[in-house]
Design a protein that fits this description.
Blueprint (H helix, E strand, L loop, with lengths): L13 E2 L11 H11 L11 H11 L6 E4 L2 H12 L3 E6 L4 H8 L3 E6 L1 E3 L2 E3 L2 H11 L3 E5 L11 H9 L7 E5 L11 H11 L2 E6 H4 L8 E4 L2 H8 L9 H11 L2 H23 L4 E3 L6 E6 L1 H4 L2 H7 L2 E2 L1 E2 L10 E5 L3 H14 L3
Parallel strand pairs: 1-13, 3-4, 3-7, 7-8, 8-9
Antiparallel strand pairs: 2-10, 5-6, 9-10, 11-12, 12-15, 14-15
Length: about 350
């Protein structure tokens, strides 16, 4: 099992290792979950058809272009199982489950390493295309915005990359688990246009956006031809009643998403402004609900343990390719917790 945030359960710790918003649930959602208990003696829909139709309507596409998943991670493994690729590239550093899912199917994993430049990890569409073409990669996994680096690849840059890939069967798999934490304006419509032109699968996580990691909800979409291959290996009854009933409810919560954008923008700005004023630390630009930081080398040793002693748990990044003990991922939380985070970071660094 790969290492992930949220694994340290200790009383009194404020957990910044998990990038799930700590926002209370609405009474209407609580009522929905209670109502779903009455249906626990029934089998759920074998393919979650009602929820799948809701997703399709929300996206403005055909239901045959959608597959539901028990969270985004379930869909990552499902894609790998359906395609059984020979060689796949991964844009690194990134979420470690892509590699694990591919290796379980015997796929040769290739790396395209992002280069650290100032306050970001530089993305070059031309270099990506050269790497894919030279290595004869059948597909590329990317996380957008990327976990843990936080940056987003714009649709126009994805198109530049795809135009230069020579393999007509090449598949681009985009994990957009964190796309809805900030307002990326016309991103969704531009991606729908790209799907019509190229072989693309987009994965979305409702688990993250609607803060229900214990419920596990996600979906993927693409062209009917691509999605059909994945749907054919989809396990029956992959989602339970609670998940199936929750999906239409969440898709109607447009005001909540708008408020999520507002909250994430304000609190991200607050944290970055505070980090800029903090010695011995570097931050990376973020387009999601987390921020990657880098501690000065002479201050990194023991920093994680000091933060634990001070009551704050950060996500270590030593398991991400290309990152080491100097890097940590911080979840964006509410103002009181964010203030405590900055205070404790400064205390740990003796700032």
């Amino acid at each position: 099992m790969n290492f992930h945030g949220g694994q340290l359960r200790q009383s009194g710790l404020v957990d910044f290792s998990v990038n799930i918003p700590s926002i209370p649930y609405e009474e209407a959602f609580r009522d929905l979950l209670i109502a779903s208990i009455e249906r626990l003696n029934e089998y759920p829909e074998i393919d979650g058809a009602s929820a799948r139709n809701s997703v399709a309507t929300f996206l403005g596409i055909n239901a045959n272009q959608v597959v539901l998943g028990n969270g985004a991670t379930d869909l990552i493994y499902l894609i790998s199982r359906a395609h059984r690729f020979k060689k796949v590239a991964i844009l690194q550093p990134t979420f470690t489950e892509y590699e694990r899912a591919l290796r379980q199917e015997g796929t040769v994993v290739q790396y395209i390493d992002l280069q650290e430049r100032n306050n970001t990890f530089e993305i070059n569409p031309d270099d990506m295309a050269v790497a894919v073409n030279n290595n004869q990669s059948e597909a590329l996994f990317i996380c957008n915005p990327n976990n843990p680096t936080g940056q987003i690849i714009l649709p126009r840059h994805l198109e530049i990359f795809l135009e230069k890939v020579v393999n007509p069967e090449f598949l681009l798999i985009i994990d957009e688990s964190f796309i809805e934490f900030k307002d990326h304006s016309d991103h969704h419509q531009l991606m729908k246009k790209l799907i019509e032109k190229y072989n693309i699968i987009i994965i979305r996580s409702m688990t993250k956006t609607y803060r229900v990691p214990g419920l596990r909800i996600g979906y993927l979409f693409g062209t009917e031809k691509i999605v059909k291959k994945i749907a054919e290996v989809r396990d029956p009854w992959a989602l339970n009643h609670m998940a199936i009933m929750s999906i239409p409810y969440f898709l109607e919560q447009t005001k909540f998403v708008e408020e999520l954008h507002h909250w994430c923008e304000i609190e991200s700005k607050f944290l970055i402004e505070a980090l800029i004023k903090t010695k011995h630390i570097k931050y990376f630009k973020n387009d999601a609900n987390f921020i990657l930081i880098k501690i000065d080398e002479d201050k990194a040793n023991g920093f994680y343990e000091k933060m634990i002693d001070l009551g704050v748990h950060l996500r270590k990044c030593t398991d991400f390719r290309g990152l080491n003990e100097q890097y940590f991922r911080l979840a964006v939380m509410d103002r009181d917790k964010n203030i405590k985070l900055i205070e404790k970071i400064r205390e740990a660094l003796n700032d």
